Amino acid sequence: MTTGKIDVLLATPEMPAMDIVAGVIAKFTGGVLFDARQKARRMWGFLGENLSPEEAQRLVGLAAEAGLAARAVPADAVPPLPEGVPVHGICPFPEGMEVAIGPTKVRRLIPWEPVRLVAAAPLKETTTTVRTVKEGPTPQQRAVGIGIMMVTGLPVGMGKSKEVKKTVHETELRLNMDIFVGGEAKVFRLSVDADKFDYASLGSPPEPGVAANFRRLLTAVAKGATMAVVNLGARSIVEGRSLAGLGYESAGDYEKEIRWLLTIQKT
User: Fold this and answer.
1) Residue 152 burial (CB count, 10 A)
2) Tens digit of pLDDT for each residue in 209-227?
């Protein structure tokens, strides 16, 4: 057995009920169930990380007692993710998909068989801008001034408008998709930004709205790549489920789930 650090991963690509996972984590850590639930929501397939071999085996055993199949793997066997190659168009065929990739939109036919994982997620993107706005007296200040003027008969100056710099934070959901192709030795990543994709490449007129077209794209790819694992986000979008409670709080959550799914396919 390896003497290095060990990760314990769920052995199957389906997410179990969070209460079951939380119960396992609580028993393993000796902590309270509330804290274990918080950890369970962010685990994304990793029951435990950077454990000793003895800790890993104990956690695998506790998972088995709860009916969860888990696997202990060397932490360095969990691969970092490759950089994504931007995909601007996908035309599905029975034998594969023709993709337009990179800044020059080079076209390439990729068979369905080596597609290992189809992943998607709604990710929060926050933009920060500094705006200059004019501010005058507030409604409350105006009301006070009018009240004084009515009592005294004297005009009350309200002050001049002034320019103020305000920092504005705006958060929106952006739909992202990644297709992982290749074998155990090397895998490459095709990345789709839903807002920058040519949906006419699917072979039928685009529908109104990005979300509907993105769902069409995911459905076409998942239908063709029958041997691939499909992550939680992609399944939810294809099935038309609500995306609000999926739990992708950051790109880190999404990428952690992908690393889990790629790892259990090769170990």
Assistant:
1) 9
2) 899 999 999 999 999 999 9
In 3D space, the residue among 25, 17, 4 whose CA is nearest the CA of residue 77 turns out to be 4
Q: Which of 246, 252, 212 is nearest to 232 (CA)?
A: 246
Query: In the chain, what's the furthest Cα-to-Cα distance?
Result: 91
Q: How far apart are CA 164 and CA 134, in angstroms?
A: 6
Q: What is the pTM of this model?
A: 0.80
Q: Which of 115, 146, 168 is the last residue of a domain?
A: 168
1 falls within a domain: no
In this model, does residue 141 exceed pLDDT 70?
no
224 vs 186: CA distance, rounded Å: 22
Does residue 223 sit in the same domain as residue 180? Answer: yes
> Which residues lie below 8 Å from residue 77, measured CB to CB, with a gap of 6+?
7, 263, 267
Higher pLDDT, 20 or 207: 20
Q: Where are the beta strands (DSSP E) in the chain?
A: 6-10, 46-51, 70-74, 84-93, 96-101, 106-111, 115-135, 162-182, 187-193, 229-230
What CATH number is attached to the domain comprising 19? Answer: 3.30.1390.10
Closest CA to 257 of 235, 241, 226, 238: 235
Residues spanned by the domain of 198: 84-126+171-266
Closest Cα partner for 121 from 253, 1, 32? Answer: 253
253 and 142 share a domain? Answer: no
> How far, in Å, CA of 258 to CA of 267, rounded?
15
Pairing type for strands 187-193 and 96-101 reads unpaired
Cα separation of 159 and 173, whole Å? 41
